[in-house]
Amino acid sequence: MNRMSWRYRLGMNLANVLAICFLILPLVPVVLGSLQSERTLQEDVWALLPAEYTLDNFRLILSGGTNKGQAFQGIDYLPNSVTWFRNAFLNSVLVASSVTVLTLVLATLTALTVTRLKLRWTGYLMNATVISRMVPLIVLMLPLFVVMRQIGLLNTLPGIIMAEVGLLLPYAIIILVPYFQAFPKELEESARLDGCTRLASYLRIVVPLSTPALAACGVIIFIISWHELMIPLIIASKPEFMTLPVVLAGLVSDQFVFFTVMMAICLIGLAPTMLLVLLLQKYLVKGLTAGAVKG
Amino acid sequence: MANVSVENLKKNYGLHEVIHGIDIDIGDREFVALVGPSGCGKSTLLRMIAGLEDVSGGTVSIDEEVINDIAPRDRDIAMVFQSYALYPHMTVAQNMGFALKLAKVPADEIDARVRQAAATLNLTDYLERFPRELSGGQRQRVAMGRAIVRRPKVFLFDEPLSNLDAKLRVRMRTEIKSLHQRLGATSIYVTHDQIEAMTMADRIVVMRGGNIEQIGAPLELYDAPVNEFVATFIGSPAINLLEGVIDGADFRLPDGSTLPLPAAKPGDNGRAAKYGIRPEHFAIVETGAMTMMKIDVVEPTGNETILSGTIGGQEVQITQQQRLSLAPGQEIGVSLRLDAVHLFDAQSGQRL
Ligand SMILES: Nc1ncnc2c1ncn2[C@@H]1O[C@H](COP(=O)(O)OP(=O)(O)OP(=O)(O)O)[C@@H](O)[C@H]1O
Ligand SMILES: [Mg+2]
């Protein structure tokens, strides 16, 4: 393309700014809310900026309810969710990272089988996988509960991880299959003649060259798993096995609603995914556009 | 060392058979070229020998041992792909040493062998570069280097030069040939360029539609093609084929004119046939012309002159070594080298 006219560029930039605002704007009240006390918030709900700023919400959450600070001085009742926050955060990190790693490993192997081995049933199995994802998750909740109880995985992190891997595997497979299909097969063939087994040629050639796709896929899985509410809600009823979204949901349904605490939890909850995206930005842009343009 | 043999080899994709039971015996140290039109199954055959494609019937053997079910990595075969298939995330040195590393050859020996191969191929200055930082010709050399450091039993090449420009292609052709003379490994070389096949190979296998048409030394195919297909496939400009019928000692063209038949050819009176003669087997004569040729186009190439025109209304091309001053539209008398004439059956295309 040759030079764009300034009008065109201006229009594009405006559209960009609008799109970014649309995505970022909801975050502004969350940030502001998390920086004030419940009292100042309730005094004047229409105020644009808080009358005074405080970090007490974060202090309360991060200390597990022991450091009440000024804002929560007189309050005896603290929801479960606040006291268990640190635990829930750790659980979430554990669950989301295990789910991401496991799903990537399994999905890579599956996608390679589907694209490389000319087995008669892979096509049908692939379709079955895709179709099974069309079933609404809520329908599966009861059977999931029953099965998990049967095998004794209720109220365990492995139970949550297993269920989420099952949920996310089809997505990951669907993302990776086209990528591996487009992978030049001569590279693997060459590796196989050079002395690799099929598996070794995947691990030494295909996987290192697929980091953009794997990173993109991994981030998507991590984010979905990080936000997943339904599965941990069903499987974990004891507070020590709850994940962040469960804790957040608990805040809403509790006797009192602490908006400012909830906003602070939201912000801390957002941090890991944002961090991940920033770290893998380089790969993500490549991975999400892979196949769109022929390199 | 190694001889490769293929017996009654078949390949089908689903119900569609693309290779119909072929037999080839390739001797130790031999350089064999597989040629044929696009889609005739050259790559498929090569890939079956490499083990990259399952065999649907028949056997592939190396040194009398059937290797149908042996994994590619255990066949001790190196292959150079048309796309070169260099590993993009490895340097030239790592690319070349990859197979040795997998074979657990000690690092210093890998290094020595890679350096030696790089020196042979003028790649020493590029060992630390990545494939994307190389020109097409250099990549091609790396692909060759990757094959030779392994010292495999058999080399397979699938159109390795087809992505290079004409000049480089000619140079690499010579280089591959001298490399083969030095290393002496059995080589199978797929190409659709008949000049490459003629100049490099000890023997050529001509394929068509999943069958072998003829196997022989380059000049054997040139001088004694078994059928019309092989005759037209080998040689450039292509052999001239004139349609007509055998009429006693003559070959009668549809317009009534005649060409003399070689004395050795049997009568077979009235048989419809094609009269094949190569462009260089014509001589322009003042007297004693066997037939007249009408000139349409004169193309001097420097070392020879290509004349296109018609004999008895049918198109022919002849080449002449001397420089000629001829004008389009002119009629010239020509004589033919009768011992170089081939007759092909009009229907089957088989040589009579
Ligand atoms: N994976 C496949 N599935 C089905 N048919 C195939 C497959 N691979 C090749 N074929 C068919 O097998 C035949 C031989 O193909 P092959 O690639 O061996 O031809 P080739 O002689 O190498 O041609 P070219 O000179 O164009 O490379 C072709 O008709 C092709 O359509
Ligand atoms: Mg081919």
UniProtKB/TrEMBL annotation, chain A:
Domain of life of the source: Bacteria
Cellular component annotations (GO), alphabetically ordered: plasma membrane
Signal peptide range: none
Organism lineage string: Bacteria, Pseudomonadati, Pseudomonadota, Alphaproteobacteria, Rhodobacterales
Protein name per its UniProtKB record: Carbohydrate ABC transporter permease
SUPFAM superfamilies assigned to the protein according to its UniProt record, in alphabetical order: MetI-like
Occurrences of domain ABC transmembrane type-1 (ranges): 89-280
Main localization, broad class: membrane
Keyword tags: Cell membrane, Membrane, Transmembrane, Transmembrane helix, Transport
Membrane topology: Multi-pass membrane protein
Automatic annotation (TrEMBL), chain B:
A cellular component annotation (GO) from this entry: ATP-binding cassette (ABC) transporter complex, substrate-binding subunit-containing
Keyword rRNA-binding assigned: no
GO terms under biological process: carbohydrate transport
UniProt domain ABC transporter: residue ranges: 4-234
InterPro entries recorded: AAA+_ATPase, ABC_transporter-like_ATP-bd, ABC_transporter-like_CS, ABC_transpr_MalK-like, ABC_transpr_MalK/UgpC-like, Mo/tungstate-bd_C_term_dom, NA-bd_OB-fold, OB_MalK-like
ATP-binding listed as a keyword: yes
Classification via Pfam families: ABC_tran, OB_MalK
GO molecular function, one term: ATP hydrolysis activity
UniProt keywords, alphabetically: ATP-binding, Nucleotide-binding, Transport
PROSITE patterns the UniProt entry points to: ABC_TRANSPORTER_1, ABC_TRANSPORTER_2
The organism's place on the tree of life at top rank: Bacteria
Similarity field: Belongs to the ABC transporter superfamily.
Name of the featured protein: sn-glycerol-3-phosphate ABC transporter ATP-binding protein UgpC
Organism in which the protein naturally occurs: Mangrovicoccus algicola
